Amino acid sequence: MNNYIIETAALSFSYPSGQAALRDISLQVKAGAIYGFIGQNGAGKTTAIKVLLSLLDNFQGEVRIFGADIREKRREILSRTGSLVEEPALYHHLTGWENMLNRALLLRLPKSRAGQVIRQVGLYDARHKKAGAYSQGMRQRLGIGLALLGSPELLILDEPTNSLDPSGIREVRELLARLAAEGATVFLSSHVLSEVEKIVSDIGIIHQGRLLFQGPMAVLRERAREECFLDTHDNQRCLEILAQEGLKALPAGQRLNLGNIGREEAARLNALLAGQGIKVYALEWGRKNLEQLFFEITNSPEAT
Ligand code: ATP
User: Fold this and answer.
1) Residue 59 Cα, ligand 1 centroid: separation in angstroms?
2) How far is Cα 167 from Cα 176, in angstroms, rounded to an integer?
């Protein structure tokens, strides 16, 4: 195995009920990456995260974190890892600062460390407010702050942007980008690619327990190949004219997606449509949106 912060080989896991939740997963997470682990509900994200955090141990295959076998170095690995699985466990009747201080004392860390972290997660000004009165984004940042107290080299976050409003998502996104810039490795799961695509450097797409794609975000973007979009005054009529030509176009919002056609073909269609009285407002190439690509990957024949 190579020098990855997280590396699994042929990782499989079945619940006692017989439900196979992970099938032959080989994850590779580089140091300093923000790795997005993306999959629909029930894909196996939480199960994989529980294995990485040693909360489930009767798995098959190999799991190495910081280069060490998780079965052999569990304590050492966990002492270098911070995590947030589902809702942060907060005392809602205590202030943000009291929550932070309480956890610091439990971990036998100095008060100054609690002060550092509450600043780091941008809650210093709101530190005397009760956690119950925080917005969801603030609560999530406080939860991430608690995970950060022990200065972990690796942060594992299960759905950190789940159920946040757009400003909460932005707050968490900015925080994670800062942490990665400071040298941490972040592994986070999400079921919405568009919520995390702006911050992740690498991505793994899991579907029905299988890893269908893994690689740099830039490579995934590359796969969202160019397609030609048509904007006219009468798309319905256009579809009919194109169908007579044996061409299939797909409605895409206000426009029609003509697929990956070339420039000459586009010019020919433009002349054809104009000749039939269609006003062509725009004929332009654009990249497929990532959510569509995600849908395609998880619905391809190999995915099932
Ligand atoms: P979500 O986003 O809904 O949390 P997920 O990607 O995290 O989904 P998992 O929670 O890991 O998915 O679930 C993977 C599969 O394992 C699902 O089919 C789920 O029903 C099943 N599963 C999860 N927990 C258990 C359990 N304790 N016992 C039996 N089956 C389980």
Assistant:
1) 15
2) 14
